[in-house]
Structures are given as C-alpha cells and as structure tokens.
Task: structure prediction
Amino acid sequence: MKKIERRAILCMLLAAFLLVGTGIFCYRFVRDGRTWAVAYRNQHIYKNGHIRVGKIYDRNDELLVDNGGGKKGSPKYIDDEQIRMAVVHAVGDAQGNVASGAVTVFKDKLIGYNLITGTYDPNGSGNEIKLTIDSDISKVALDALGSKNGLVGVYNYKTGEIICMVSTPTFDPKDPPDPGKAESGTFMNKFLDGRYAPGSIFKLVTTAAAIETLSKQEIEEFEYYCSGSRELNDNTIRCSYAHGTVDFDGALSNSCNCAFSELAERIGSKALKKKIEDCGLTTIYDIDGMTNVAGTFEVPDDAVSLAWTGIGQWKDMINPCSMLVYMGAIAGDGTSVRPRILYSNFGSPKSTDRMIEEETARKLRQMMKNNVVSEYGESRFPGLDIYAKTGTAEVEGHEPTAWFAGFIDNPDAPYAFIVGIEEGGNGIDAAAPVANTVLQALVD
Ligand SMILES: [Zn+2]
Result:
C-alpha cells in the first residue's frame, strides 16, 4: 500500500513539474518568441546574418530596397545611385554598419513575426514598410551638400513626418566601403545620432528664456552697446565686429555675442537650464522605434561659462533632430509635434509637452522674420516665407560648423529645417543656400 502511495506522490510531483515547465515555456514563448523567431540563426529569413525578407518604400512608393530581391537572396536597392547614397542612413544597409537604419530598427516588422504563425509567411517575402522620407528631396539635399560633411533634416511641423535626414560623408550600400577604411562618420546618421556645438542657433533658446524670465519692460528697454568685445572676469567675449548699440531684436539679428552674454547673466543659470530642458534639447524621442540622442549641456553659475553657454558655445552640444523639433514649437503655438518615420503607421500627430509660451513663440517668429529681412536678405530665399537663424559654431582645432535652422510658413508646405555643415565656416554663406535649395524643391 505504502509503495503505491509513494508512486502516486511521485506521479503527482512529475505532473506538477510538467505543468510548471509548460507554464514557464508558455510565458517565455509569449515574452521572448519574437526574439527567438527573428534570431540570426533562422536561415530562412537571414543570409549571412543579413535580413533577406521585406521591402522598404519611401513616401511616394519608390521601392528603396527589396531585402531578398537581389541575386541569391541579397538585397536589391533602388537603381538611382544618388538616391541610394542619400537615403542609406535612413534605410540602413545589409552589413548593419548603419546602426539606426530602418532595416535594423524595423526588423520585426519586415519579417512579419506574430505569435500564431511565427515568421511563417506563405509568400516567403516578408512585409512592406513605408517611410515618411521623400527620396527625391533627399537626393536634392545630398547634391546641395556637395563635397561637404554635414547633415540636412526636414520635418513637417504639423504632422511630425520626417521628410529628409541626409548625412555626409555617405556611401553606396550596393558597394559598401570597408568599415576599417571608410572616412570617419560615414555610417553615422548625424541627424539622429550626432551631437554638435550649436553656436548662434542656440540663441533661439536663450532668447526664449529671456522673454520668459525678464519683465516685459526689461525686454522692451533692453539696450546694449557692443564695442566688438566684452571683458568678463578674466575672459573676453568677442563679436565678429563692433555692432554698436543693439536692442533686444537687434541682439538676435546681429547675433551679438556681447549682448547675449549680458542676457545670459540676467536670465541666470537655473532659468536657462530649465528652458533648455523645456525646449526638448535633452529629450530622446521615440520615432516609431528609431531614437535620437539627447543633447548635452552644463549650465554653470560662474559668469563666464554662463555667458558662453547662452551664446551656444562652451559645453553646449545639441542633437539636430531635437533642435528641429524645437523649430516646430516656434512655428506652432509653443508646442511641437513628435517626429515620425513610419508612413504606414501614420495616425494623428502626437504633440510634445509645451516648450515655450504662445506669446514667446509669437515674439520669436517676429524676431526670426526680422533676422531674414534685416540681415540675411529675403532675396536669398525667393518665394519662401522663411523664419530662421544662422549659426557659426567654433570647434577647437577645426573651421567652424555652419548652421541654418528655422521653418517656412506655408499651409501646403509646413516644414521646419536644420542644416549643419562641418568645417563650413559662416552659417549664412555655407548652410543657408543648402536650406534654400532643399526648401525650393519641397514647395515646387
Ligand atoms: Zn556684438
């Protein structure tokens, strides 16, 4: 009798183990099934470690890459070489050198995994995804950058769609360079993954902080006499030339470093730091699964570092994508729209938190328009209702990074833009013409 009892207990224990084991498997299957299914050892969806299913289109249904469409399951890219090179940082490459490309980020979507059928697909060709990118505009941007290294970012500030994110130096995914021999930065999506000294485009943040920290009267009565330099403790703040007497608008349109050092002092480090965060410059956006890197800033109390921080130098490092989203907030009512990259996934635009007050956005628009009219010259941007700020950021040991950032006011083309050119020199001469070329193509 005892023997039977012992056996019964043993059976019960075994059954219990089986039950628990099955439970654990089911839990892990649901939790990790996607990871197992899309693992690189599954040879029907990979070839030599590269995804061989799925197609990626641009917003105009141009087939940018058919992952398994080439010889023996290799990727088949769009025929136009310039387009391949313009969109490779957005699309990604078979070797996975571009870490943030759609091929890598949207692997699951391209494979088409689901819990019931796994990666089984009757056609064996995977899924199609459509990006918000315009490949023709990207080609125009690449051409406009020419031999210069840098980036062009454009997004629709009403819908959040990223239209263009082009980085140079670039490469042809059809004939990729040896990673060990490629020029530095070749595989980097500089719009999403780059961090740069902003120079004077950062004054758009300092200006917002000033408007919201100082009294209305202080702004209206602000006047600064610029002799070309300002001694601050043991440091000299310099302007490109003596601007003479500037008011608040003139400080921005002349991009007067000396006046901005005074403004930064009046704003104080605490308020400036908060405005940097409010404006999203330290934000990482979830762009349908892609991400940007956060900008980095130190906003110290001491007068000299604070002055240079307000001017957009010292330890200020912006990410172009988050700066672009801030341009959207100025174009709008002080909130912006979160960036999107998946066209097929396009729902209603998702707003950011409030970055600046509505009144501040209105004042900044007026000042950015004044920059164009009084300093840059509207004739540089024929037919465009453009609002902008230039930047010429000092980089130790290099020529300055040239910047041009802003937006156009056009109900049919609500685009914000950012152009950065490494070793480009002057913002208005190097970066503004690139922005104009791309924007002209967009409104055409
Ligand atoms: Zn000045």
